[in-house]
Amino acid sequence: MQQPRQIQCKRVYESPASSDGFRVLVDRVWPRGISKDDLAADAWYRDLAPSNALRKWFGHDPQRWAGFYQKYHAELRERQDDLDQLLKDCNGRTLTLLYAAKDTEHNNAVALKMLLEGKGQP
Fold this sequence. Notes:
Layout: E1 7-11, E2 22-25, H1 36-39, E3 43-44, H2 52-58, H3 65-77, H4 80-90, E4 95-99, H5 108-116
Parallel strand pairs: 1-4, 2-3, 2-4
């Protein structure tokens, strides 16, 4: 299975770019105010989003970031089949993880990128 050429995170409200490669929405709920056509995503991996309980606990509080990504990585390690499918579908292209959160540094897409790149694991 090929690793992505690169992994990047992008807000769903940003315009698609030709350099985005394989664009994947990784939020559990569909983003507000965006139609499926406007998002221009290749796939929606809602099962790779944090559980509702974890998402609510985190509440996008930067002070809970370290605890969030560690708990989220634990959830993701139980979803190895979904992670493998994501990498297979990406097929060595650039992988763009799409998210709706306003915070560009503390969100599930950034945490997923960290896991895929082997960074930030306890």
